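Review form for a predicted model. The reviewer records the input and the model, then writes brief findings.
Reviewer: anonymous (R2)
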Amino acid sequence: MNDKERNQPNRGTRIARVGAICYFLWGLVHYQAAYDVFLLASKLPASMERGRINQDAFYLACFATTGIAVAILLNWRNDRFGFWLNAIAISAGDIPFILFVLLPGYTAFWPGALGPVLWIAALTCTGLGRSLSVQAGPDVRLLSNRASVEP
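Model under review:
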């Protein structure tokens, strides 16, 4: 194997990077959603409802930040922990949205379904990327970038 081949990520990592891009886009969509929810709350009089809606906007921004950070730091490298972290965190954010907002029709199906579509694409690509990498063995290039700890 020459240096050029060694520096190329394996097929699983390339597919996982497509998933990381989808998670990144999911995060951007949710920053916009957080802003929209904040604007919605600002139209309400000072009340418990306004406070709770502002809290929801904050949670959306936190989910978006988590999704983007994990995508950049871990999913891009096809990291197993990153796969599970985004799989659980983003699922916890999108499943309630689908059940309690999208399916009852409280928002338009499109663009409302954009977040869940990106989530499913990201989850599928990062899962497939992990699966292909496990079958192919470790990505030598990625392992060489990690600090080694000697006993």
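Findings: The chain has one domain: 12-137.
Further findings: The radius of gyration is 19 Å.
Recommendation: see findings above.
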